[in-house]
Amino acid sequence: MVKLGEFFRGKNMENNFKEMNEAAAENVELEDKVKDEKRVKGKIFKLSDEGYGFISSHEIPFTRIFFHWSSLKQNTKKFTELKVGDVVEFTPVEVKDKGTRAIRISVIEIGVS
Fold this sequence. Notes:
Elements: H1 4-9, H2 13-33, E1 40-47, E2 52-56, E3 65-68, E4 87-95, E5 99-109
């Protein structure tokens, strides 16, 4: 997995574009499949330097909800601006053999780490 910082600094550009395009394409497929716009609130509890993180939500108990930076809405914070503790609203999607994934993510409240 390519680290997000390396992607933006231009190292291994060809490989970075391939991996980022694959992740973005997977998110586009999920966006197209989702008909129900059920919005759920949660809190970011883990962020990775590689461009992904996890959300917890009382509405989906006992689940770590994966998200990729490409799932952030354009009118919200950038991935590099996110902090653990930020409250988000998202659409949950079940992905076969992978669990729950968050798409269409918006930051609604800035958390305190």
